């Protein structure tokens, strides 16, 4: 490996460029759609916002179990095929968006897109494990996180440039482009050869109850739920909280969330390299501490003097982002190494399922706590993530050594 790649925490990518291209195209397609996810139906079909929100929420909830089904399919048929199928399903859903004029059709296409996304995240995690060398697993998850943020950022920027036009035809063109991205990515992935050894033939009939008997994994999943809640709260709660409760200028959320993406793009792989000498559980504990601090600081923003509030919010967003950087690749790698290789697809699918549950809970959790008092969601998360951090320290002494370490070297 080149010295500069090792210094900045990049894994060895030789022979994997086709897979990286697939991930880039997929992320770009997602970036084109996300800024339009609600506005598109308002502009092209004249649906009221409450109807759009309800249809998309029901579709999201109905798609949650798909992650668990995906795990079995990955273990049986391989991550590459299932990941490609997920992209083709999303392509069909986005093409269907071009013909949405009734609420039932909206729900049906939204279910395809959402289910395809759930399948993708559950299957692509196993695909990353197949691509990675065992000692570079954390680096690969870090690199994929950077790729996704770059693709989302570029796609989102292009989509944002046309939002002000309010032109239905341009909106449809972007949705069509997004569908094309998923179609190209899925077809390209189907043409690539398998990146690693296949184990699914051995486990076709093994039930999910086998995983439920792994007490340490179940404890990890339960304690883990606070982490995706914290991660998602930034995009869900931050814009409303800082403008309505903190009374910061309306332009603050945009640049602050852009800072979040830029920090991930610029620092993710480097932070992964710096954390390699340490136990993964220590990295997750550091993430819990950073989230606890940032959530507490967000709550305290209500009493910060007006002339300090803008730099204060940007600082807290940076701390919140640092927690995400520490958490993302580390947690995925820990789960991948925690279970038997033959059941890895199901272990990773259950982990992704916890993210799906968190995505469904976050809006309701924030809105119900926010109406009590604006600072309550942040105080609640600070307490919850503190408990999760302490549970990880308890798990550290009970997990196998090969699970808690990122590289085959002395650990701290």
From TrEMBL:
Q: Where is this chain's protein located in or outside the cell? A: Cell membrane
Q: Which residues form a coiled coil?
A: none
* Keywords assigned: Cell membrane, Membrane, Transmembrane, Transmembrane helix, Transport
This protein's record includes keyword Transmembrane helix: yes
* Topological relation to the membrane, as annotated: Multi-pass membrane protein
User: Major place of localization?
Assistant: membrane
* Gene3D superfamilies linked to this entry: MFS general substrate transporter like domains
SUPFAM superfamilies per the UniProt record, alphabetical? MFS general substrate transporter
Q: Which residues cross the membrane?
A: 20-41, 47-70, 82-100, 106-128, 140-164, 170-190, 216-242, 254-272, 284-307, 313-336, 348-370, 376-395
Task: Check the record and name the InterPro entries matching this protein.
Answer: MFS, MFS_trans_sf, MFS_Transporters
Establish whether keyword Membrane is in the entry: yes
Protein name (Swiss-Prot/TrEMBL): MFS transporter
